[in-house]
Design goal:
Chain B: Keywords: Phosphopantetheine, Phosphoprotein. The complex is a heterodimer of chains A (528) and B (90). Chain A contains 13 helices and 27 strands. Chain A has 528 residues and is an alpha/beta fold. Among the domains of chain A are: 121 residues, Rossmann fold; 98 residues, GMP Synthetase, Chain A, domain 3 (2-Layer Sandwich). Classes of the chains: A alpha/beta (528), B mainly alpha (90).
Chain lengths: 528, 90
């Protein structure tokens, strides 16, 4: 069973920043970015980005280069992104909210970075990478001497635009790259399908490392609108809500769990800034529609809620569903809808044959958004990009590892993962990645991590450790893990165990471990 | 709010720390919280932090940015931050 999105012709060179440059010519004085009480116009941003692009090309970092960016949200971040693209290079976001040890691990997975753009507050975090670290502020005098004109670089839709980290299948994050054509197609679809325009001002509320943040950052500039950035390294519901109230923001992209927080903030304190938005585009994890139900039913909610699905490997969003059509009585899982332009969804069995209508299978994505694959060393995950024969035509597709089906109305429904990977608050996590970090701690002989659902239906990670000496205290394990893992990868519970149960095949018996979690949580309920 | 002049900085810090700790105890659902225990080591996460941020506004009248909550992840340090922001200009 397959779903085909509308076929829409793209320009001969679907290059993302060319659309931005069109807006520079049409509305040079429009405000492009607002941040921390400052703003730049399209013309000013264009000049700064062009100068940075000239700096890159003069150093030989042009087409095909990869530029790391480790910056807090700021006007400089947008300059670095646009300048990188204009030089013909692709950027790689490094989230400065991550612990330094995690950034070191990510940098080790990103060989061949031309350089890393950082600031005085982030430079020390990325110095381990071996790549040169530069600071736009320190280079201001030099940049001012470079031409403000568009650099003459030939770029096609097949050139890479960005690469983001995603959980690999071997416990090590992998860098997955996408192409201009895919990113252009995504934003062109959003603009045309939802009528985004010069007044569709955005606010970014997600962390820089997420693939959805790349879309949230670029979409307003693709549409000629204004981008609002928060002067905050961490998601801040109070600040986000204040900005929604103060500025004419129309569109927000976020993980579902972030949307719940914003809704809770508005519900607890009153207000309608969220309800009056034009669009909220959200997804990335199993939807808890009950968290949205009251908000969606409020009479003053005029906002269209778009429940979306996609993977970083295929340029972020693949399908979209207007939640107004959702009837909790009819669907047990809120659908994620139909494909983007020039995108198809295939539900396939283990032999990559289409399943019957309504049957479950692996969700596979083909079309413009299919990315360029994982950068760097080859791993088993590269096999997820494959070409199959469909009615005599070879089709390149990506096997997402997500399980789903197409319902009677022709909408995609996602039902979870086929492998051990889990989504925790919108972030795809491979439990073996956490196991490795635990296994490196002194006093831990062996560790296993399983995902279980807590009483509220949220996925949480439970860790089991075999101590090499005496039992390890939960608080101590958390403290030490925090030095190497992002906070949302931290297990919620830790249990000391004599040995890790193994399946007959000698693999960690995750089902047996998940069983151990259940009586334990019942005990803590009765104790509490 | 006017404060009696006799209240010293230390006393005010102690009062704020007690109120912060009460909020942490409630939101983290544990009683054994020392002034220098790390929020995340205690099992806190960003969702709980958002609730604490809201509770600071409603119960202490303090608007604390999330970045400051992360930079000051102990009862002692966040109480000191709140007091430093509330202190009248010298």
């Amino acid at each position: 069973m397959s779903l085909q999105g509308k076929r829409v012709a793209l320009p001969p060179s679907p290059v993302v920043h060319r659309r931005f440059e069109e807006h520079v010519r049409a509305t040079p004085d429009a405000v492009a970015v607002v941040w921390s009480g400052r703003q730049v116009t399209y013309a000013e941003l264009e000049a700064r980005a062009n100068r940075f692009a000239h700096l890159l090309t003069a150093r030989g970092h042009g087409r095909g280069a990869k530029v790391g960016i480790c910056l807090d949200y700021s006007i400089d971040m947008i300059v670095a992104i646009l300048g990188t693209l204009k030089a013909g290079a692709a950027y790689v976001p490094f989230d400065p909210a991550y612990p330094a040890a995690r950034l070191r691990l990510l940098l080790a997975q990103a060989p061949g970075l031309a350089l890393i753009v950082a600031s005085s507050t982030t430079a020390a975090m990325v110095e381990s990478g071996g790549a040169e670290v530069i600071d736009l502020e320190q280079l201001a005098d030099h940049l001012a001497t470079l031409p403000a004109t568009v650099p003459d670089v030939h770029i096609t839709g097949d050139d890479l635009c960005y690469a983001v980290f995603t959980s690999g299948s071997t416990g090590t994050p992998k860098l997955t790259a996408v192409r201009h054509e895919g990113w252009f197609n995504l934003m062109n679809w959003l603009q045309r399908e939802y009528g985004l325009h010069r007044g569709s001002h955005h606010l970014v509320v997600s962390a820089f490392g997420f693939d959805l943040s790349q879309r949230a950052l670029m979409t307003p500039l693709f549409c000629g609108a204004t981008q609002h950035l928060m002067a905050s390294r961490n998601f801040d519901a109070m600040l986000a809500y204040r900005m929604l109230t103060q500025y004419d923001i129309r569109v927000v992209h976020c993980a579902s769990s972030t949307l719940y927080l914003l809704i809770d903030w508005e519900s607890a304190r009153g207000g309608d800034a969220l309800a009056r938005l034009d669009y909220i585009l959200f997804g990335g994890e199993a939807l808890k529609s009950e968290r949205l139900a009251r908000f969606a039913r409020r009479p003053d909610t005029t906002c269209t809620l778009l429940h979306q699905y996609g993977v970083a490997e295929c340029t972020d969003v693949a399908t979209s569903y207007d939640l107004a059509h959702y009837r909790p009585g009819e669907h047990d899982i809120a659908p994620v809808g139909r494909p983007a332009h020039n995108t198809a969804i295939h539900v396939l069995d283990a032999e990559l044959r289409e399943v019957e209508a309504g049957q479950y299978g692996e969700i596979c994505i083909s079309g413009a958004g299919v990315g360029a694959g994982y950068l760097g060393a080859g791993g088993p995950e590269n096999a997820r990009f494959t070409t199959i024969d469909m009615d005599g035509t070879p089709v390149r597709l990506y096997r997402t590892g997500d399980r789903g089906r197409i319902d009677d109305s022709g909408e995609l429904v996602v039902a979870g993962r086929l492998d051990a990977q889990v989504k925790v608050r919108g972030m795809r996590i491979d439990p073996t990645d956490v196991e490795r970090a635990l296994g490196r701690l002194a006093g831990v002989r062996e560790a296993a991590v399983v995902a279980v659902r807590d009483d509220g239906g949220d996925v949480e990670l439970n860790a089991f450790v075999v101590p090499s000496g005496k039992d390890l205290a939960e608080d101590d394990l958390r403290t030490r893990l925090l030095r190497t893992l992002p906070r949302n990868m931290l297990p919620s519970r830790f249990t000391n165990i004599l040995r890790i149960p193994l399946s007959p095949h000698g693999k960690v018996d995750r089902a047996a471990l998940a069983d151990i979690c259940r009586p334990r949580s019942a005990d803590s309920d009765s104790a509490g | 709010m006017t404060r009696p002049l006799a209240v010293t900085t230390n006393e005010r810090n102690a009062v704020t720390a007690d109120r912060v700790r009460a909020i942490w105890r409630r939101e983290l659902q544990r009683d054994d919280i020392m002034p220098d225990d790390d929020f995340f080591a205690l099992g806190g996460d960003s969702l709980i932090m958002v609730r604490i941020q809201g509770a600071f506004i409603e119960e202490l009248g303090a608007e604390v940015p999330m970045d400051q909550l992360f930079l000051n992840p102990t009862v002692g340090s966040i109480a000191a931050y709140i007091d430093s922001r509330a202190a009248p200009a010298p």
